[in-house]
Amino acid sequence: MDSRRKSQQEEKWHLEQFSENCSDFPEGKQVFCYNKQMPDLVVQTIEGNVGIEHTRLTEQLTRNQESLQNKIVTRARELYERENADLLQVNFIFDIHKPLRDKMVEPIALQIAYATKVFVFYLKATKQFQTFGYFESYQLRWHGITNFPMEVTNVSLSFAKSLEGVLWEVDRGSTVPRLIADYLQDRINKKAERINKYVGSYKEMWLLLVAQLSEPSSSFDLEFSTEALQYPYKSPYARIYLMESFLGTLVRLKAAPIQLPPEGEELLGSS
């Protein structure tokens, strides 16, 4: 089976799963469409057509992003060890939905080096010399660091017993990223750009965002995505749903409906 056919079958399965799990799914004939002139699913109801768009949430770490992460960690270590003699093992987890740029390497490295210095001081002050430390942005605010970079979601730290044990590295395989509101808004905006091009009239347009726990590139931690799940998203869609297809979890996101701009103009909130 070719990739296009497989993708169409997967899309159809997601939409069918959505129709079964959504308690107020519109009643009517379901027409699945596989061209760009119509929504992915059209439900023909007595009151009119409801168009439902499908899009998978996928995010893969590019080599460029991986390289920038390494540069930040290497530079943070250089800055820290320039003024401190502690032997550390430090592990960083970056938010893959917060893209990095070359100009961000130095300022983020400076912030990380300073945060590490503060946290090491705390561990020493509480005599936790060999204790495994773990901190996130909320913990750092408690220590008086308010500008910890959002690009770094968390850091684990412990004291190395010898120079050979010193290690500063990026963890890319032990975490499931949380959803970020800016990322979802961007995906919504990109999908909405097609609405003006559809053939036919529609009473309402809905959008289904799909995540899959069974696939690393489409797996997100919904439990720790509260902010993104409660954010009011600007879009021309009357309803926006987020579905985790592996477990069948369905969440209706808050939608702040706006008028679609003329074709060629940027959608409000896309910047």
Structure characterization notes:
This protein is α/β, with parallel strands linked by helices and 271 residues long. Helix content is 31%, strand content 24%. The strands form 2 sheets. The protein has a 7-stranded mixed beta sheet with strand order 1-2-3-8-10-11-9, sandwiched between helices. Strands 5-6-4-7 form a 4-stranded mixed beta sheet. A hairpin with an 8-residue loop joins strand 1 (29-32) and strand 2 (41-44). It is elongated, with a radius of gyration of 23 Å.
Which keywords apply here?
four-stranded mixed beta sheet; seven-stranded mixed beta sheet; 11 strands; 271 residues; alpha/beta; 31% helix; single chain
Compact summary:
The protein is of the alpha/beta class and 271 residues long. Helix content is 31%, strand content 24%.
Rg, alpha carbons: 23 Å
Contiguous helical run count: 6
Largest sheet, if any?
Answer: 7 strands, mixed
* Helix content percent band: 25-40%
Category from helices, strands and their pairing: alpha/beta
The secondary-structure element order is HEEEHEHEHEEHEHEEE
Measured between the Cα atoms of the first and last residue, the distance is 39 Å
The coarse overall form would be: elongated
Strand order of the largest sheet: 1-2-3-8-10-11-9
What's the rounded overall pLDDT mean? 82
Low-confidence stretches: none
Number of strands: 11
Strand percentage lies at: 15-25%
